[in-house]
Design brief:
homodimer; alpha+beta; four-stranded antiparallel β-sheet
């Protein structure tokens, strides 16, 4: 399967593309291999790209005053990643997007995305559903943070995404779930 | 301004509608007055509507095991409200949507929404941007929950949305921010 096929296959799960749509779409996406720890966005830059993750894993984080890296989102295969605030208002981002491991992405510029949104109704629908999905996932995370104990949150996460827990370093998982690495390590030994 | 004009004005901030689009759109939205404490959705029901808030305020919440009402979202004027998970997968909702005070909404059925998304590219774009906005707002909330002290979270919220803090009962604001009402009351007297 070539790189664009993975994207087209994913879109087709949600929205019907014509052959003409597919040709226009694939002409706009550029393949990029991102080495581990390389950045796609850094604080202070204006975000001008949407990224579709093919393989690997990205993290979206900010550095808070204490120097701590607070992870807000991971980008796993078939997930979209961007700073949607910065790309929309064209102001400098307060976030970093970095490869957790060697990661393959398809890159779409803001300019080309606007063209695709205007030309292809099915792509517009697909992206609307992706944003809706990301929104419901983040509401669910807020619910877990407000309603569940730290231990239950960890259990729900490890049960729901077992491969993911294998993939990413423990200190990143701890940051994402709002734990200290020590607390997470305590939970893990308790579980084992 | 009639009820539909408020919606059309809001859409036009993000996306250009033709006269024909406007006619089709307005034919699909039904006005509804929701009395204080009346429900638009209850746990166990399949969600089949999108709501656009004209005036007043809705709350989206779930009842957790202890009987506590955990508020996850408020719907204020020009905000969309639905259970986007239930409306998409057509499974029973785990949530309630209730009017905090007398509230006016425009109601769009799932069926009509699908027709509008297929017929009007500009409406599709508008709704994509609304979902993106809701997603970035919820990511920001996660960031505040993970990075800021309870006191700073409260200050950011009251500074950012002063009218809102006047509007809704304190115990609901406490639930939304993840505080106990006692804790919030302590913060408020400290601030005064």
């Amino acid at each position: 399967m070539n790189h664009h096929d993975q994207l087209l296959k994913h879109i087709s799960k949600f929205s019907a593309l014509t052959n003409e749509d597919e040709l226009l779409l694939t002409s706009k996406f550029r393949y990029k291999l991102v080495e581990k720890k390389d950045f796609l966005l850094q604080e202070g830059q204006v975000c001008n790209h949407y990224y579709f993750v093919l393989t690997g894993c990205l993290r979206f984080y900010k550095i808070i005053n204490t120097g701590f890296e607070q992870i807000l989102q991971f980008g796993i295969p078939n997930w979209w990643m961007s700073d949607y605030l910065s790309i929309n208002n064209q102001r400098p981002s307060g976030y970093y997007i970095q490869a957790v491991e060697k990661t393959e992405v398809l890159v779409l510029t803001r300019y080309d995305a606007d063209e695709l949104f205007n030309e292809i109704l099915a792509f517009n629908s697909y992206f609307r559903l992706m944003m809706q999905k990301a929104y419901t996932a983040s509401l669910k995370k807020i619910e877990l943070m407000l309603c569940e104990s730290a231990e239950d949150r960890y259990l729900q996460f490890t049960t729901g995404f077992p491969e993911f827990v294998q993939l990413i370093p423990q200190y990143m998982l701890a940051s994402f779930l709002g734990f200290t690495p020590q607390f997470l390590s305590g939970l893990r030994s308790k579980k084992l």
